[in-house]
Specification:
The protein has six helices and 18 strands. It has helices spanning 17-27, 71-83, 93-99, 156-166, 220-232, 292-301; strands at 6-14, 31-36, 39-43, 51-55, 60-67, 89-90, 103-108, 114-119, 146-150, 170-180, 183-191, 199-202, 210-217, 237-243, 250-255, 261-266, 279-281, 287-288. The strands form two sheets. It has a ten-stranded mixed β-sheet. It starts with 5 loop residues before the first strand and ends in a 9-residue tail after the last helix. The structure holds fe (ii) ion. Residues 146, 148, 212, 214, 263 line the site of fe (ii) ion (FE2).
């Protein structure tokens, strides 16, 4: 197959490097990979990096590295993208070295997201070690995690032509939920391996290119402990603990220092294309995932502890 096999890495441009290092290492439990000329990298497994953090004003996703299984498949994929009239350029050795890949081609999706098609994301010289986690992150054949990107008015037909017809993603499912009268969330979830989804798209109002990146942990206790670390650090939450009906992820959503979110999850569904049936669901959350304002209201309304004055 010439399609993408997994999400290898993401590149974020951030205005606050120190805040991001604290967020990634101390709160999420990632491992500092290395300091670079313009930032640093973060590891979640044996790979050299999974998040590349660079300093700049965007405070957003600036590139996604999708890995292809081997060089011949990469050449075939690049030829297919070019044949569709989409511009692709080969990255030079400096870019390949920065991304720690063997070969790299750069293209752009219909929303203007930079997409890097790569082979051979390198392993780090040392085993993965987190200062915070009891277990590790879930990566392997399912790649680094998943991300939700904003369509920003680009039609579903247009972006699926890129991600499905060219990159080789398959539809997992669709969720359409009326959040309030006249306000409808409509997301489509795509997979390229057993992970229920690697990328999803929605067209809700949002100032960024990305809504969130999901990292998954092996031990459910690490979700709770990360929840506590984020709470103790007063890191703003987007949503409380909850579960999604499609990928069964048990997770919470916390804002990064750049204003988009990280979903921190456990127990994500692995799917098999042979037996998987595409469905349309009517809710984004099975339970929980309440906006933080709901919790703030509850806490504000709580009676004072016994023996204390209001
Ligand atoms: Fe997610």
């Amino acid at each position: 197959m010439s399609g993408v096999k997994e999400l290898g890495y993401v590149v974020y441009e951030v205005s606050g490097l120190a805040d991001w290092e604290h967020f990634g290492v101390e709160l999420l439990g990632m491992q500092l990979g290395e300091k670079t000329d313009d930032g640093f990298t973060l590891r979640t497994d044996e790979k050299a990096h999974r998040w590349v953090i660079t300093e700049g004003p965007a405070d957003d996703l600036v590139a996604t590295g999708y890995e292809v299984s081997e060089e011949v498949a990469l050449d075939a994929l690049v030829a297919k993208v070019r044949a569709a009239g989409v511009e692709v350029t080969e990255g030079d050795t400096a870019l390949a070295a920065a991304r720690k890949v063997e070969r790299i081609f750069v293209t752009t999706d219909p929303m203007g997201n930079r997409v890097e098609l790569v082979t051979g994301l390198a392993d780090a010289a040392t085993p993965f070690a987190s200062k915070k986690l009891l277990g590790g992150f879930v990566t392997g054949a399912g790649g680094a995690g998943h991300q939700v990107l904003l369509a920003h008015g680009v039609s579903r037909e247009t972006y699926l032509a890129f991600y499905i017809d060219l990159l080789g993603f398959r539809i997992s499912d669709i969720i359409v939920e009326e959040l309030a009268p006249g306000i409808v969330a409509d997301l489509i979830f795509l997979h390229c391996n057993g992970r229920h989804h690697t990328v999803a798209f929605g067209d809700m109002p949002h100032p960024k290119k990305t809504h969130h990146f999901m990292v998954e942990v092996q031990d459910i206790r690490d979700v709770g402990m990360a929840y506590d670390r984020c709470m103790d650090a007063k890191q703003p939450f987007e949503m409380t603990l909850g579960m999604h009906p499609n990928d069964h992820m048990f997770s919470f959503y916390v804002f990064t220092p750049s204003g988009f979110s990280v979903e921190y999850g456990w127990g994500g569904l692995i799917i098999d294309d042979e037996t998987w049936e595409v469905k349309t669901l009517d809710r984004l959350h099975s339970w929980g995932h309440r906006p933080s304002a709901v919790v703030a209201e509850l806490l504000a309304a709580a009676p004072a502890p016994h023996g204390e004055d209001h």
